[in-house]
């Protein structure tokens, strides 16, 4: 299994300890996110120590006030890491609004340009900003889009039509998340990814505790149940999709 989106360097435990638990649970590979200059550096260090860890390079919308030519160059530099597989996470967050909206838009468009320049996928953060995020993505037309922590349930058909990957996190297991569960049930198999977004959004039965990559197996079992398939079959589909989305080496090669 692969955890398609986590923050290893934000976990309570040392990344090596969390990785050991993940492997024991059946998680073989992990994409850990670089969403600030500091996190990019920390993620690269973890990947240098573990060949099963892949990284991204980007600036989270919460940090968008920091966007500058220097940050853009740092993203390009970090993207040269041999296991950097995407730009992001980037996007828009109209819920927290921790950075001015104009700065979020600048950082988002800037990172889309970098993804295009480097021919890398883009990992999208979108919270209560679906109209603007979808409009910009449609305008910019990046080659590969991963909608992290997918929540745009009313736009699922549009995402599918455009071939965007929909990555479901632990919140799909929450009893109140019926619309999100319906989206996880209906999304085409070839576009489904699974993630933890650890240390956030721990799935049932771990809700209320810090999340970690091992818990993606709980989300896998839950989503497999929604879709009426055996977990090992969904696991294989997610692995194949992640290999396509992030151009990872195939484990069956």
Task: Using brief descriptors, characterize the structure shown.
alpha/beta, 42% helix, 253 residues, TIM Barrel, single chain
Report on this model:
This protein has 253 residues and is of the alpha/beta class. It has a single domain, classed as Alpha-Beta Barrel (TIM Barrel), CATH 3.20.20. Helices cover 42% and strands 16% of the residues. It has helices at 15-25, 37-49, 69-79, 101-118, 130-140, 156-161, 178-186, 216-227, 231-246; strands at 2-6, 29-32, 53-57, 84-93, 122-127, 145-147, 165-168, 192-194. Helix 2 (37-49) packs parallel to helix 3 (69-79) and helix 3 packs parallel to helix 4 (101-118). The longest helix is centred in the middle third of the chain and has 18 residues, at 101-118. The radius of gyration is 17 Å and the shape is globular. The relative contact order is 0.15.
Beta-strand residue percentage? 15-25%
Helix content: 40-55%
Structural class: alpha/beta
Q: Ends: how far apart?
A: 16 Å
CATH architecture: Alpha-Beta Barrel
The coarse overall form would be: globular
What is the succession of H and E elements? Answer: EHEHEHEHEHEHEHEHH
CATH topology: TIM Barrel
Q: Order the strands across the largest sheet as they lie in space.
A: 1-2-3-4-5-6-7-8
* Cα gyration radius (Å): 17 Å
* Unreliable stretches: none
CATH superfamily: Metal-dependent hydrolases
**CATH class, please?**
Alpha Beta
Largest sheet: 8 strands, parallel
Tell how many strands the DSSP assignment holds.
8
Mean pLDDT: 97
Task: Tell me the domain tally.
Answer: 1
Count of alpha/pi helices: 9
């Amino acid at each position: 299994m692969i955890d398609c989106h986590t923050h290893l360097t934000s976990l309570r435990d040392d990344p090596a300890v969390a990785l050991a638990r993940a492997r024991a649970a059946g998680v073989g590979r992990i994409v850990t996110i670089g969403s600030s200059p500091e996190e990019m550096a920390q993620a690269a260090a973890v990947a240098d120590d573990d060949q099963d860890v892949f990284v991204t390079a980007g600036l989270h919308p919460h940090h968008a006030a920091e966007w500058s030519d220097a940050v853009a160059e740092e993203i390009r530099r970090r993207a040269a890491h041999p296991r950097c597989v995407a730009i992001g996470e980037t996007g828009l967050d109209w819920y927290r609004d921790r950075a001015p909206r104009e700065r979020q838009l600048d950082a988002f468009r800037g990172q889309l340009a970098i993804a295009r320049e480097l021919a890398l996928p883009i990992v999208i953060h979108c919270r209560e900003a679906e109209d603007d995020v979808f409009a910009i993505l449609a305008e910019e037309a990046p080659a590969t889009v991963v909608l992290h922590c997918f929540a745009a349930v009313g736009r699922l058909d549009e995402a599918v039509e455009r071939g965007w990957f929909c990555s479901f996190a632990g919140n799909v297991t929450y009893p109140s998340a019926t619309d999100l569960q319906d989206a996880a049930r209906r999304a085409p198999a070839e576009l489904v990814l699974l993630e933890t977004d650890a240390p956030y959004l721990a799935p049932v039965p771990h809700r209320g505790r810090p999340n970690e990559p091992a818990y993606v197996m709980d989300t896998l079992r839950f989503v497999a149940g929604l879709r009426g398939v055996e977990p090992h079959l969904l696991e294989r589909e997610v692995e194949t999709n992640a290999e396509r989305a992030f151009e990872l080496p195939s484990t069956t090669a």
